[in-house]
Each structure stands twice: as C-alpha cells, then as structure tokens.
Write a structure and sequence with these properties.
- With 335 residues, this protein is an alpha/beta fold.
- Helix 4 links the parallel strand 6 and strand 7.
- It is globular.
Length: 335
C-alpha cells in the first residue's frame, strides 16, 4: 500500500469569530474546508481554537491533542495562558475527534481501527490538516519564525510525520507519545475494541489480527525501515503498511536539535515497549522521563506551558507570571 501525505496548497478562506476573551487575549474559533481529498462525512471542516495576545505576539504555538475528547479541555487551558504571555496559540481539533467525529463513530477510534484503509484515511487527513493549518496561520501573519508544536499522544505521533515534512517548525515537543503500532493494537487499553473485533473474526488482512506474526514482521523489517528516506517509506511495497503510519518509522529523519521527548514513567495507556522503541529512536534529542502517568499531568498544564515558554526564549518574569494569572472570561461583545 502507498500512503499519500501530499495536498495542493492554496489560499485558505476561513470563517471565524471571537467566542470569548480575557484581559490579555482573545479566543477566535476558526474553521475552513479541509484540503484533504477524502474526508469522512463529518470531518470536512478544520476547526482551530486560536488564542491571540491583545498585544503583539512574539511567538507561535500549535497544540495537537491526543485520542478522544477528555484531554482536549485540559489542553485548551494552555491557550489563554500562553497568549497572555505573548504567544499566539492554536489548539487544533484533529479529524475523527471531539467535534469532528465522523458519522457513526466515536472520538479517536479510526486512527487505530484494524482496517488499513480506514487508518490510512485518518492519518493522511490528520497530517494534511496540521500542515494546512500552518499554511493558514502563515498566510494570516500569525505563524512566527519563533514557534513550537506540542503534540500529546496521538498529537505527538502526527507531529513526528509533520516534523519531517515541514521545515517551518522551529521546535517539536512530544508529550507521552509512543510508536510500534502492533504493540499498541494488541496491548494498549485504548484498543480493547480492536481486540474484541479480532475475537469475533474481524480480519481485513495484513496480519493485523495475528499478534505473533505481526511482531515478527516488525522485528525483521524495522532495521531496513530505519535506513529509508521519507519517500521510500511512503511508497515501498516491501514493508508492512503499518510502518507508514508509525512514528518509529520517521524518527530517524527528524532534526533532533529541534526535539524534546517527554516520556511518562507510569504510563499504562501506551505499552512500555511501545514507548521505549520511540524513546530509543529519539535518544539524541532532549529526552526526559518524568514520574507521571499518561493522564495525571494534564491538570497541571502550567508546567508544560512554562517549558514551552522556555523553548520559545520567553524568559521574562512578566511572561512567567502570566501563566499564574487567573483568567476571567469576558463577553466578546463587550469592549
């Protein structure tokens, strides 16, 4: 199978409006038609919560959430606080999640659905929506040279591919992200639904339901994948199709000087070896292992925001103080 992360660039027309504001920022809800060629019904519109400083922005951040919906409300906390510190911050809703769930599905499921055609559709869509969102921000003058993409879980997986394709990204921050798709399919609590499907006889080919065979294929082919160029990975018929949506396939192509990789020691959502293999591939980056779980850090977004400011060289006391300011949401119709 061949996967295609390409799209035709164009001037992007958006529909947007301020939905709330604080003392130091405004939140703009931005929508535009996806540039992906094969959107599932219900995912056609890209949705972005864009938090902009009331004063001039000196940096940009794009935040990509994880599978499902619950984590998004915590990541949205980052927007007003980073914007108050002077960083134009977008929280992108990935296709197949939250308010962009496709018809007759649930949030996040399709990225791990055990059918390669479905998986390819959503991974292509997620990557293209991320790239075209940067296009839109750049066209509007919102994407600064001083910028960062922070990806949590699925968002980090998408960012691995985006980071190889797009040289406009100054820094990549991966938060509790893993790889090795066979282990995620057969061991993660997030994919219990897929294993139940296997037990009932669901089989769309490519040995997805055969754990032992799939692991052996990965063990045999991964050393060769790590030698491939980006285009070779996309087009090769000699490797398992899962490699083409797997972050571990692309890690060796990243500029590790741009990368921070944060692993959660007590992460039970992503299997240990799923995290370890990606961690090892990014060992030359700025890597950290913290005593946190996959989700228990989410209510403490302050620390992530503080680190993002550090990577953007926002070192003033005023910027750091903005992260601690309790924001009161104001009516956008009031001056």
């Amino acid at each position: 199978m061949i996967i295609d992360y390409s799209y035709t660039k164009k001037k992007i027309d958006t529909v947007s409006g301020h939905i709330f504001k604080g003392r130091n920022y405004r939140c703009n809800y931005v929508r535009f038609k996806s540039l992906y060629r094969n959107c599932a019904p219900g995912t056609e519109n890209v949705e972005l919560y864009l938090f902009e400083p009331k004063r001039e922005a000196r940096g940009s951040a794009l935040i990509l959430h994880g599978l499902g919906s619950k984590n998004i409300k915590y990541l949205l906390w980052l927007g007003p606080h980073l914007a108050s510190a002077g960083v134009s911050t977008g929280v992108l809703i990935l296709p197949g999640n939250y308010t962009r769930v496709e018809n007759n599905s649930v949030s996040g499921r399709s990225y791990l659905y055990p059918d390669m055609n479905v998986m390819y559709q959503f991974w292509e869509h997620g990557v293209i929506d991320t790239l075209s969102t940067i296009d839109m921000l750049e066209q509007s003058g919102t994407w600064k040279e001083n910028n960062i993409i922070a990806g949590y879980c699925l968002g980090g997986m998408i960012s691995t591919i985006v980071g190889v394709i797009d040289n406009r990204i100054n820094h990549l921050l991966f938060m509790t992200t893993g790889g090795h798709m066979p282990r995620i399919l057969h061991q993660s609590p997030a994919t219990v639904f897929a294993r139940r499907m296997f037990e009932k006889g669901f089989d769309k080919g490519y040995q997805l339901n055969d754990k032992k065979t799939l692991y052996n294929i990965y063990d045999e082919q991964f050393p060769e994948v790590k030698k491939m160029s980006f285009n070779e990975i996309l087009t090769s018929e000699d490797i398992h199709p899962l490699f083409k949506v797997d972050p571990i396939s692309y890690a060796h192509l990243l500029d590790m000087k741009k990368v921070t990789f944060i692993d959660a020691y007590f992460d039970h959502t992503l299997p240990v070896l799923s995290r370890k293999v990606l961690y090892d591939e990014m060992s030359s980056a700025n890597t950290k292992i913290l005593p946190i779980s996959h989700v228990n850090w989410l209510p403490f977004g302050y620390f992530l925001a503080k680190y993002m400011l550090y990577k953007l060289n926002f070192n003033s006391k005023e910027a750091k103080k903005a992260l601690l300011t309790k924001e009161i949401i104001q009516n956008p119709l009031e001056k």
